[in-house]
Amino acid sequence: MMRKDRKQDGILKDMKFGTHKIIEEKKTVMMNITPQNFETEVKNSSLKQAVLVHFWSPRNAECKKITLLLEKLAKARPSDLKVTQLNIEAHPLLAAQFGISSVPAVFAFKDGRPVDGFAGLQTEARLTAFINNLCGPPRKNLLQKALSDAQAALEAHDITEAAQGFAFVLGEDKNNGAAIAGLARCYFGLGDEERANQTLSMAPEAALKKPPLSGVVALLKLAGQRKEAGSLSLLQEQIRNSPEDFEARFALSIALEAENERAGAIEQLIYILKKNRDWKDGQARQQLITFFEIWGPMNPHSINGRRQLSTLLFS
229 or 149, which is more confident? Predict the structure, then answer.
C-alpha cells in the first residue's frame, strides 16, 4: 500500500502538488568511516536514512566484489540508503567493537543503532533482498505502484483518490507524463477545463504530441467541439433532409460521440471520407484519429474504426 502521510483536505482545487521534495539523482560514493566521523556519518545519518557499513580489508578479494555490488544497488535508491566502508586494518579497534573477526561483513544501521547484518560474500539477489527488507521497495517501484493505483482509481471514477495519487507522484517526479495526464483528466472529470489545461502546461511542448498527454489534449479539444455541435435530434433531422451536408454530419459525429454512440460517430465521418476524402483538408480523417486517441488503441471501436479507415484509404 502507498503511504499517505501527506495532508488531505478532500478538495481537489486546493491541492498543492508542487510542494513535495523532488528526489534528485546523486552519484553514489562509498564514504570511508573512521573513529572520528563514525558518530556523524553512521549514527546520526541513520536517523534520516538507512546506513550500511561495509567492514573490509584491501587484501580480501571478496570485499572488492561486495563493494561493487553495494555501489550498484545503492545507486538505485540515493534518497533512502547510504553505503559506507570501514577498513578493519586501518581501524582495528573500531571493528573490534562490533565483534568483526572476518571480512567481508556488513552492518545495517537505522535510528542510530545497528539493526541487521551479514558476513561473507553474498549474491546480488540476496543483497537486493537484504536492502529491500531494510528500506522497503525502491522508490521507483513505490512511484510506479502509486501511479498504477491512481490510474485504477480514475477508471473507477474515484476522482479525489486518483488526484491525490497523481499529485503524490508529481511531487516526486514533476515531469512524469502519465501523472500529468492523469491529474489533468481528474480536473476534466470535475468539469474544470481551466485547471486541466494548467496541469498540461507543466509538460514540455514536445511531450504534448505523444501519448499519454496527446490523448488529454485531444479530449480537451473535443470538449470544445461538443459545446458547438448542437442538438443531436436537430442534426439527425438535418441529415435526413440533406444527406450531403458534411458540416452537419461532422457535427453529428461529435454529438453522437458525446452520447457514447461511438459506432454512429465513426459512421458519419466514414461517410464524409467516402464522398470527399479531402473535405476541409482531411478534417474528417483527423477527427477519427482524435476519437481513437481518446478511446484508446485497444478499444473495440478504435480497432473497428481504424480498420474501416485503412480499407478506405488504401483501397
Answer: 149
Residue with cell string 491512481: 150
Identify the structural domains of the chain with CATH numbers, from first to last.
33-136 (3.40.30.10), 230-313 (1.25.40.10)
**110-132 average pLDDT score:** 94
Give how far Cα 200 sits from Cα of 165, 172, 209, 297, Å. 17, 17, 11, 21
pLDDT value of position 10: 37
How far is residue 135 from each of residues 5, 34, 94, 145, measured CA to CA in Å?
17, 24, 25, 16
Q: β-pairing, 105-110 with 50-56?
A: antiparallel
178 closest CA partner among 220, 137, 149: 149
**295 Cβ partners below 8 Å, 6+ apart?**
262, 301, 302
pLDDT of residue 29: 61
Q: Tell me which amino acid residue 138 is.
A: P
Q: Which residues are 82's β-sheet partners?
A: 51
Amino acid symbol at 121: L
